[in-house]
Design a protein that fits this description.
Radius of gyration: 27 Å
CATH class of the largest domain: Mainly Beta
Distance between the termini: 104 Å
Number of domains: 3
Number of strands: 37
Strand content: 25-35%
CATH superfamily of the largest domain: YVTN repeat-like/Quinoprotein amine dehydrogenase
Strand order of the largest sheet: 3-31-32-33-34
Length: 579
């Protein structure tokens, strides 16, 4: 028999694997995770591709390994076991707030390490390649067990901490003294210079009637107090010496009243509820509203509560979901109650014309429910258009206007999106307003003109600026300029033409407050610093900046009675700004 026809036995120490499909899948994961985010940041395409890369990609790698990698016997099942079992064990031992963190980040890294290890060790023996790879996976999962995921940046990059380090919430609870309802405190009355609502009395982020110190080089803001708070992504309401906000405190959500001059807690009211997600972490999202001596607060899971603002005693509460057949949004309820016409109006999220709801401010009973808002993180907004007082609600549908007393739909502008709408509408005049498109879409920002003749309403689109795409960052108006955000870039938009005048990436996903009498923007940067920027359509000119807070800051700044109040998910502070 010719020598060439003799079949030579395979060396059992050699591991002949088909690796090229695995490498192609790893490349696909990297492309899906990285590329769409660079081209269409924060868009639906970005999030879909990110989830596909992080979740579907590893599944395809495991299928390839079992079916087509030419692994035999136990070798075929060891690798999947070293992926699936650690996820189950880590999830079962509650080393994570949510198992999604394990699926979104470590699992893709684990399969990438495995495939790359087998690729670079082609010339090594089978036992070395197999056992070495399993040892690497064990070491990797050991490292994962030592890491805690604490939310992400706005673009999805994870924030991590060693698991033996206490969370900011745990540090707060460790030193916190629980305070019950207060007694013998005077009634809360809204006065000049107070900040009664989310983004101010008109919900427009605009401060008037006061001149503040803006020479921070010579007279830097004076720190009056700073202390830890429970997680929360709303901001403050201020009346007289009282400062109100919402926080997560362990397994309960709390509405809290502090002294605004010292930061000392006066009272708190809490109820069992906890919402947490992989992006922002735990905590309520909304800001309480002060009205007629009462405080109205909406929790992340949908509880609307009315408290006596002086004592913190509960007057009434209602479950928005149960009352309206609503569906909680992906990142929880974030609507700050609007008090108007004797009603507390909030986003409800019910289907079939049950998107926005009004509850009697005195009793909590449902007064009306209407509209197409199925998904929104915006709040009801008061407006005077065509001489008629009305309530606006922005959602994935577009924008709708309601009679605040009866809930009758006055007009609507359908501008649908499949992603989130967060920011407030901007009222420009008796007829005009700005509406932002969905998060990360090419819809941009639109100027509408709303007119009324007899009983008929007409809505026209004047222009659409597709390069001004706010995420959850509100804007303000000064003269004929709109100052806001295009994703993570602060920008200026000409209101007449819709042209973008300038952008700046110095503040990330920050928030704005307008010092209208001084033509200044107070900017709360995402890193916790606070800056003064001239409200100049010609250029972005920063005047001063100082580190007000530490850590990720998505919350809106507040100025009341000449003091700056800032907070994020871990601390709050008060600075004196008066000259």
């Amino acid at each position: 028999m010719p020598e060439s026809s003799v079949s030579m036995p395979q060396d059992p120490r050699v591991w002949r694997l088909r690796l090229w499909p695995g490498l192609l899948l790893i490349a696909l994961i990297l492309i899906l995770v990285i590329v769409p985010g660079r081209i269409w940041p924060l868009s639906l395409a970005h999030f879909v591709s990110l989830m596909a890369g992080l979740m579907l990609g590893p599944v395809l790698v495991l299928i390839w390994w079992i079916v087509a990698a030419r692994a035999r016997g136990w070798d075929r099942w060891l690798f999947p076991l070293f992926i699936v079992v650690p996820v189950i064990l880590l999830g079962a031992t509650l080393l994570r707030d949510s198992i999604q963190c394990l699926l979104l980040y470590p699992v893709p890294l684990a399969v990438m390490f495995w495939v790359l290890w087998l690729t670079v060790t082609r010339k090594l023996s089978r036992p070395v390649r197999r056992n070495g790879g399993l040892i690497i996976l064990l070491a990797f999962w050991g490292l994962v067990a030592c890491v805690r995921f604490e939310g992400t940046t706005a673009t999805g990059r994870p924030n991590m901490r060693w698991c033996w380090q206490k969370t900011d919430e745990a540090k707060f609870l460790e030193g916190h003294v629980v305070r019950a309802a207060a007694a013998d405190l005077p009634p809360v009355v809204i006065g000049p210079g107070d900040w009664s609502d989310f983004r101010g009395p008109q919900r427009d982020g605009r401060l008037t009637g006061i001149t503040l110190n803006t020479d921070w080089a010579a007279h830097p803001p004076k720190l009056l107090w700073k202390h830890r708070v429970g997680p929360g992504w709303g901001t403050f309401a201020v009346a007289g010496e009282r400062l109100f906000t919402q926080e997560q405190r362990g397994v309960e959500e709390a509405v809290v009243c502090y002294r605004q001059d010292t930061g000392v807690e006066l009272w708190s009211w809490s109820h069992p509820a906890r919402f947490s997600d992989e992006s922002s972490g735990p905590g309520p999202r909304a800001t309480p509203t002060i009205h007629d001596g009462k405080l109205y607060a909406q929790g992340a899971t949908g509880l609307l509560a009315c408290l006596d603002a002086a004592s913190g005693n509960l007057l009434w509460s209602t479950d928005i979901k149960a009352a309206t057949a609503g569906v909680m949004p992906t990142w929880a309820y974030a609507s700050s109650p609007l008090l108007i016409a004797g009603n507390a109006i909030v986003f409800a999220g019910g289907k079939n014309g049950r998107g926005t709801a009004a509850f009697d401010a005195g009793t909590g009973k449902l007064v009306w429910v209407a509209g197409n808002a199925g998904h929104s993180y915006s709040s009801a907004h008061r407006a005077m258009l065509g001489g008629i007082e009305q309530v606006l609600m922005i959602s994935e549908f577009g924008i709708e206007s309601f009679d605040p007393a009866a809930g009758t739909v006055l007009w609507s502008h359908e501008w649908r999106t499949q992603v989130s709408r967060v920011v407030q509408p901007v009222i420009l005049s008796d007829t005009d307003l700005l509406v932002a498109g969905g998060t990360g879409t090419e819809q941009g920002t639109r100027r509408l003109r709303v007119t009324r003749q007899d009983a008929a309403w007409k809505v026209e689109t004047l222009w659409t600026a597709r390069n001004v795409r706010p995420y959850f960052n509100d804007g303000v108006v000064m003269g004929q300029s709109y100052f806001g955000f295009d994703d993570a870039r602060m920008c200026c938009l000409d209101l007449q033409s819709g042209d973008r005048k300038w952008t700046s990436s110095a503040y990330g996903h920050g928030q704005l407050l307008l010092l209208a009498d001084q033509a200044m923007l107070l900017v709360q940067a995402v890193d916790g610093s606070v800056a003064l920027v001239r409200a100049d359509p010609g250029a972005c000119e920063e005047v001063a900046r100082f580190p007000a807070l530490e850590g990720k800051t998505w919350n809106h700044p507040v100025i009341a009675q000449g003091r700056l109040f800032v907070r994020n998910g871990q601390e709050a502070a008060c600075y004196e700004l008066l000259k």
